[in-house]
Write a structure and sequence with these properties.
single chain, 203 residues, alpha+beta, globular
Amino acid sequence: MAKDITLSADRVIASEVWIEAWEYYQKQSYRNRCRIYAADGVQDLNFPIMHDGNPFAQPICQIRMDYSTPWLLRTQRAIESAYKSAPFFDHYRDSLFALMDSRPERALEWDLMLTRWALEQLHLPVELRLTEGFVPPGSERYGEDLREVIHPKRPDHIMEDLGLARPYYQVFSPKFGFIPGLSILDLLFNEGPAANTYLMKKG
């Protein structure tokens, strides 16, 4: 849910974004996954959670990460394999992997940690805040409700609707062409500091 935030062809004006912290955990959503551009095309990275009882009947703020398998190391290796030749991978690698190595206990901590990291790299002045109780979908209590806008099982047209959809450099585009809708990591590793400009100006 966003309040006083504008993404346009000219600039980003942002103050605060509210994160729903008390919704029940939803499987097959971006709450514990992202997509990257690997040597063989799109690769989904999944971040496993603990199945204490029924996780789908627990608020997302209570869901714990599962570190019983070496998925974190595999994830870092997958990211490195996909982006080691990207122009700005070395610029971001150490700070990103250091965050991942901190192994936050809960899924919401993980999401907030990575979101704040990405916002910092993009130099976007966004303050993330958590709801204190569940807010039903469609509510405008905290501003425009954007929870269901992006979902891995549904196409999204956000960039097209804003007039901002256009290709940028990707390592494997000569093989597969430009692939939209990937993690912000793809844009950062390939465009570096220009990623902020890409999100604000038409080409």
